[in-house]
């Protein structure tokens, strides 16, 4: 019998849907007080997950759910940088 591996699920802070961890993008608040996208998913700090969709980032910004998840106030320029990183991380296929 083959072992069936349990797929780790995480909730998107924007649209509130549960998806497999590998489908989501991790945003991390590092101990040095930076907020950035963590492509490896292993960076040190408090993390939150977003769908690879700009709309989810906009919803999270409007509801301030990303700030609550990271327990850190996020300035507007960081949201703009996150949007740019999100576009770069999600390559059109």
UniProtKB/TrEMBL annotation:
<protein>
    <submittedName>
        <fullName>RNase P modulator RnpM</fullName>
    </submittedName>
</protein>
<dbReference type="InterPro" id="IPR007393">
    <property type="entry name" value="YlxR_dom"/>
</dbReference>
<dbReference type="InterPro" id="IPR037465">
    <property type="entry name" value="YlxR"/>
</dbReference>
<dbReference type="Pfam" id="PF04296">
    <property type="entry name" value="YlxR"/>
</dbReference>
<dbReference type="InterPro" id="IPR035931">
    <property type="entry name" value="YlxR-like_sf"/>
</dbReference>
<feature type="domain" description="YlxR">
    <location>
        <begin position="10"/>
        <end position="83"/>
    </location>
</feature>
């Amino acid at each position: 019998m083959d072992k069936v591996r349990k797929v780790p699920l995480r909730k998107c802070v924007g649209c509130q849907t549960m998806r497999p961890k590998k489908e989501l993008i991790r945003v991390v608040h590092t101990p040095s007080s930076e907020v950035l996208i963590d492509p490896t998913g292993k960076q040190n700090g408090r993390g939150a997950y977003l769908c690879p969709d700009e709309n989810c980032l906009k919803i999270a910004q409007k509801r301030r759910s990303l700030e609550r998840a990271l327990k850190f106030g996020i300035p507007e320029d960081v949201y703009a940088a996150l949007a740019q990183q999100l576009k770069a991380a999600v390559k059109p296929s």
